[in-house]
Amino acid sequence: MTNTDSDNSREWAAQAYALLKKRQEQQKQELEKQEQQKQELEKQEQQKQELIDISNKENIVEPELGEFDDNFTWSAMVLAAQGKKINQISIDEIDWLTKLRRGLEETRKGFVTELLDKLGDDPLTPESLDDLETLLIRADVGIDSTDKVINSLRKKLNEEVVGGEAGIKFLKKELKLIIDKPIKNSGSDLLVPQKGKLNVWLLVGVNGVGKTTTLGKLAYLSSKSNYKTLIAAADTFRAAAVEQLKVWGDRSNVEVISNQSKNADPAAVVFDAINSAKKRNVDLLLVDTAGRLQTKNNLMDELAKIKKIIDKKVPDAIIESLLVLDASQGQNGLKQAKSFAKSADLSGAIITKLDGTSRGGVSLAVSEEVNLPIRFIGAGEGIKDLRPFNSYEFVEAMLADK
Ligand SMILES: Nc1nc2c(ncn2[C@@H]2O[C@H](COP(=O)(O)OP(=O)(O)OP(=O)(O)O)[C@@H](O)[C@H]2O)c(=O)[nH]1
Ligand SMILES: [Mg+2]
Asked: Could you tell me if the CB of 66 is within 6 A of ligand 1?
């Protein structure tokens, strides 16, 4: 072989190697692309399935009158105690109270049942107060509220003999006082949109607590009560958030203002929604916000930006920043409330997922330690599973003795 021949074949080999390497690279890229497309498709499928699941879960079902049982009797008695007349009671109300009582069953089991067992029919003693203290803390009522209740009970015990039943009655009164304080301080017992003004309710909170679901239920309540309602899909972070809201909007015939483009600015969505709201004389604009951003500061900055836009465009709008809290998160939820309250200028709280948690007591901690009026409570995933908060009903359900 001459030198030139050897140079040529080396050259040839080098070219062949480069070609093969390139081909291998291309194949790799092709495979990666296919994998990405597959994942994208799977994600879309999953999101679609989630939406179908939500839609299937939810056809507005009118509640039916159940048996004349303990649930009915308890619910009817709670209504009667609030001054309702027989002809004013609806199946909806009975149904809700039944759900509420059932929802708080786990919380109740945790302490009322035990408390009653411990108390028996005997009068309260300093020892039974210690037991009560432990039980209240365990039910996530929080240290401050527990101290308050125990101190008043101790004071009462020093003055008179308190029987078991009277003790529970006193306990109910004290717990109700704690929950009612921020509500009274707010100046309004019930949060309703003010007529003749644009009311904007921002639903805020960390991810997964139930903001979007709660907004859907609020849209239903509001439109059913003849408030002209509009939804702004300002959670532009989560891809499926808009679709999820549209499903809820459809159920209650409420329009959803959104911007489908990727990374749309939430404040811009709110800007568009306010324009629509003004044009249509909307009473209540419900704003869904993101629960998960890259950092917590982003989340707070974004809320501030949204509020600024509203202030600028409708200075006389009535803004409510409602913190959505998942009751099942107990003390963790309380921590969230405290951190949001510091930076987000909250005006109220909505407690969700009261069904099936043993930590309903956290509602008291939110009232006492964060000083937030509880405005609504949710006890289920259905459209009717949200009601304006009623402290009497809540405390009765939490301490019901069966
Ligand atoms: N059992 C029960 N589930 C609820 C309740 N409220 C919401 N959920 C469920 O909680 C899950 C999360 O609800 P979302 O409304 O998507 O929560 P979110 O706060 O909007 O979540 P992000 O948008 O991801 O921050 C869903 O599966 C809801 O169906 C409730 O009162 N009870
Ligand atoms: Mg959401």
From this structure: no
DSSP-derived secondary structure for 21-66: HHHHHHHHHHHHHHHHHHHHHHHHHHHHHHHHHHHHH---PPP---
325 pairs with which residues across the strands?
Answer: 351
**249: pLDDT strictly greater than 90:** yes
Q: Are 171 and 124 in contact (CB under 8 A)?
A: no
- Looking at the CA of residue 57, tell me the nearest atom of ligand 1: 29
Instruction: Name the residue at shortest CA distance from atom 26 of ligand 1.
Output: 210
pLDDT digits (tens, 9 = 90+) for 345-381: 899 999 999 987 878 888 999 999 889 999 999 999 9
Model-level pTM?
0.84
Ligand 1 within 6 A of 207 CB? Answer: yes
Q: Are strands 386-388 and 374-378 parallel, antiparallel or unpaired?
A: antiparallel
107 lines ligand 1 (CB under 6 A): no
**Size (the chain), residues:** 402
Cα-trace Rg, the chain: 28
Instruction: Specify whether the CB–CB gap between 327 and 359 falls below 8 A.
Output: yes
Tell whether ligand 1 has an atom less than 6 A from the beta carbon of residue 193: no
pLDDT, tens digit (0-9, with 9 covering 90-100), for 138-154: 888 889 999 999 999 99
